[in-house]
Design brief:
This protein is mostly beta strands. The chain has no helices and eleven strands. The strands form two sheets. Strands 2, 4, 5, 6, 9, 10 and 11 form a seven-stranded mixed sheet that branches. The chain has a four-stranded antiparallel sheet with strand order 1-3-8-7, with no helix packed on it.
């Protein structure tokens, strides 16, 4: 079965950094596009960053571009989200997901990121 487990969330002060990790099992990791989403209280889930399966090309939400970096390690079946210069508005539950051919999508359980003084 497919399992995604996020880690690395927590409480950080504005301007601080966190690195989220997502370990994935049960799939051919390199065949999947990987994404990080987040959902803040009272808001819809939004795509934060994505990385392709083949070329490794990335895309980011405008709100995080230049501050966040998505990466993947196919040998470790792990994806990462490096978050720098964090702002209070980055506070949300962050979810990793993997998808293949826009048909199969799997989700992690989410990890809380809170940016506050």
């Amino acid at each position: 079965q497919v399992k995604l487990v996020e880690s690395g969330g927590g409480l950080v002060q504005p301007g601080g950094s966190l690195r989220l990790s997502c370990t994935v099992s049960g799939i051919t990791f390199s065949s999947y596009v990987m994404n990080w989403y987040r959902q803040a209280p009272g808001k819809e889930r939004e795509l934060v960053a994505g990385i392709s399966s083949a070329s490794g090309s990335t895309n980011y939400a405008v709100s995080v571009k230049g501050r966040f970096t998505i990466s993947r390690d196919n040998d470790k079946n792990t994806m990462y989200l490096q978050m720098n210069s964090l702002k209070p508005e980055d506070t949300a539950v962050y979810y990793c997901s993997v998808t293949r051919l826009a048909v199969l999508t799997y989700w992690g359980q989410g990890t809380q990121v809170t940016v506050s003084s």
